[in-house]
């Protein structure tokens, strides 16, 4: 049966630009290698989606919520349901010296950040630079080949997925989770202790649990250090 707001699912997908066939996002390692776009620093695995949270494009979510676990579908999103139409007012001309002051040598095709906003340099000439603040996929029709891998049913499954969303480099099954009397206890594996931003991740996990599980009273994180002693 179709899903509802608040449901947790895992999806696999390959996303392409319709006009060019270029893949701009995907979750499947085998296809990334086949298409010669595999990156060592990327994690290829099903993505967590919680309906109603805005983690994916609204147009894509509108189609997914009508599907069933295990179903695969090709979804086409026109610009108005994806990243919108291109806005000419977001194309600006600035003096080249504004970039050189920031240590940037302006060249067509490179991406920069100006006033906290990402932009693409379109052209350079006469001491002026044309920068485009439109989203790179604005004006594009997108094609998603998407499969709903699984619906997460139990609280423990959902919490494990939320942990993995915050700490993706550590296998989810290495986190020991106990739920008792409204208290969630999460034992963190030793290989996660020195991950940069671990404290922020723990705070985010706690906020997620507070938000998605109103019956839970608190979250405890355990970091256990075992001593390896030689026997006498």
UniProtKB/TrEMBL annotation:
According to its UniProt record, where is this protein located? Cytoplasm
Residues in PPIase FKBP-type domain copies? 6-95
- Top EC category: isomerase
Q: Pfam families this protein is in?
A: FKBP26_C, FKBP26_IF
**Catalyzes what?**
[protein]-peptidylproline (omega=180) = [protein]-peptidylproline (omega=0)
Cellular component annotations (GO), alphabetically ordered? cytoplasm
Per UniProt, what is one GO molecular function of this protein? peptidyl-prolyl cis-trans isomerase activity
**Which BP terms in the Gene Ontology apply to this protein?**
protein refolding
Family note: Belongs to the FKBP-type PPIase family.
**Would you tell me the protein name for this molecule?**
peptidylprolyl isomerase
